[in-house]
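Now for my pick.
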Amino acid sequence: MNARLDEEKDVYTEEGREELKEEDAIDELEEGFLEGYENDLAECSYCHQVLVDEDFVESEIDGKIMRFCCNACYEEYIKKRK
């Protein structure tokens, strides 16, 4: 496997993110995003689009934090629950 692929793969592990953060290759926001990706939190709860930045809708529904890529997805999710 080529070294570049190994490096890219590491961003999705806690150890890899820590290394990149220490090297100033990523900042805290990017680290948090990647951590969310690792924990399956970085996608829209309705359309499953990957959340690529911090501009998303977050709501607690039935005691669970849900994230949506936009208001339209949030509203569709709520409408379909009824």
Summary: The longest strand covers residues 57-61. The first helix runs from residue 3 to 10. The helical segments are 3-10, 14-22, 28-38, 71-81.
